[in-house]
Amino acid sequence: MSGFVLADNNWLTIKVSGVNKKIEKNIFAHLGTLPENEVQRRAFLFTVDDNTQDALESMGYYHGILDVDVKENDNGPWELSLNITLGDPVIIQWIDIRFQGEMLEDDTFSLWLNRLKVKPGDTLNHGVYDLIKSQLVTLALARGYFDGQYTKAEISINRDLNTAQINLQFDSGKRYLFGHVDFEGSTLHDDLLESLIPFDADAPYATQQLTEFNRNLLDTGYFSNIKVLPQLDKIDTGLVPIKVELSPRPSHLIDVGLGADIGNSTENAVDPRVRVTWRTPQINSYGHYQETSAEWSPERPKILTTYTIPLTHPLDDQLKIKLGLLRDTYGVTQDYDADKREFSNTGQLESKKYLIGLTRQRRSKNNWLHGYSIESMREFYTQLDTDYDPRFYLLSYNLTKTVRGDNTLDPKSGYRQTYSIEYADPSLGSTIRLARLQARFKWIETLFDKHRFVARIDLAANIADKNDIDYIPPSLRYFAGGDQSIRGYSYQELGPYIDYTNDDGGLSRQVVGGRYLAIGSIEYQYYLTPTWRVATFVDAGNAFDTQQFEPVVSVGGGVHWISPIGPIRMDLGFGLKETETVARSYRFHLTMGTDL
């Protein structure tokens, strides 16, 4: 083993040889801070032998031979050389860990034992031994065994045979229980707050459930500051009282979001987007709250208000009332130029929608979110020079599950799956009979800390009589294109088209959307730093009608900044296919928000 220079300063230079990097680092830790004057240097050198031997023994080398050489220089630092012959290490012969007390009935400790990696045949390491002792005490405290203690904790070492025997005996005593939960600083009704407590009265104490309790309070959005404090100094008859200190959020919150699509498709080179969201976190003591979102982009202004009423649980059972006015554009409209013998863009399919809806969302114990809703909507649009204004009363059921590997704004792993069915019928007041089926899936995984993969699949279908297709409004049809669909193309510009004779007798073409949707995407992201990453992606698919599937593919890349308020992504996509209505295009997509 070659020598290593561990450190140097104006008073002393240290060189170690004969050991590997791990043992060298441990020696340096035992030697301590380097001297800063002559007195400290002599004291340092006086303890070198003992400290080095302690460092070797702590890692199982009890027969190490140390050769110390000090070169005293008149000018410059002295040179300390440590040449070490390790000898044979001490090997663990057996490990005996025994439990006593109520912990014997707690499976958590059996799982902890099964995860221990130390085993007979390993080289003795006192640091690992101390870590095991600390882990067991920490786990006992986290599970409510506040009287737990070691009745025996020893390592028996036979220097002649180079063997060690580890013996640990831990008596947990009794397990304490949760006591009364006292809330301070909130104006919400006690019943509402108590429904957020994830444990029953007199349930066995566990810090994991306190963490879940804190997360429940945070997820409600009612509070700006939360402290869940077990009062161990006030334990009475085995019960641990819990004190909860809450600070309400400001009465009104306003968020602003910015985005843009930049490219050469359709007729706009730049398509900016601005979103302003106004939230009232708590309207009354029953926990009602509202969120109003106003979004602006050229020809696509939208405003949507959602009023939420907690029912049996503020997070897992909610009634939502929605009221909105939305204007949007879809596809592209083109006129044929006989002189140039080509189609030129003249606009897009425009619609204006009024809606009011009522939704109940309930979360099951296995984390599925069930949504039951009825929505009344009326939409106005002009298609093929004909005006339409169908009315729909949609009954729907939605099923969603989201699993996150962590609670950060940029999760390293997780997935979301969403399934929905909507139905409208003339007997219930709708213009036509319509059934809508949708399924969406998004998956995230990070390998080796730096390699992140994001995949998604969107599938959808409209089931209706072929004579009623024109009465399906654009907002209920399917289009492709945009930063959440196929990048490299403009927002909702892809889909089936129809050629028709316009009011002037000329030939026109209009993208009217499809009855079906199939889109897939795979993206690879590489972290340059914890807050910056680069990405490359492939998006493919399209909206289509029966037997008219024309897949479109785009590729591209981007740079992402993981900001304190969430990832901000700048992506550049290139469309690889020229369709009858869209030339090969590129688009810049600037977006912000978490993936799940």
UniProtKB/TrEMBL annotation:
| One GO cellular component, as annotated | TAM protein secretion complex
Q: Which UniProt keywords apply?
A: Cell outer membrane, Membrane, Signal, Transmembrane, Transmembrane beta strand
**Sequence ranges assigned to domain TamA POTRA in this UniProt record:** 14-85
Q: Which GO terms describe its biological process?
A: protein secretion
Residue span, Bacterial surface antigen (D15) domain = 372-595
User: Ribosomal protein: present as a keyword of the record?
Assistant: no
Q: Which InterPro entries match?
A: Bac_surfAg_D15, BamA/TamA_POTRA, D15-like, TamA_POTRA_Dom_1
Q: Which intervals hold domain POTRA? A: 176-243
One Pfam family it belongs to: POTRA
Q: Where in the cell is it found?
A: Cell outer membrane
Question: Could you name the domain of life of the organism this protein comes from?
Answer: Bacteria
Family of this protein: Belongs to the TamA family.
Quaternary context: Interacts with TamB to form the translocation and assembly module (TAM).
Query: What is this protein's record name?
Result: Translocation and assembly module subunit TamA
The organism named in the record is Shewanella polaris
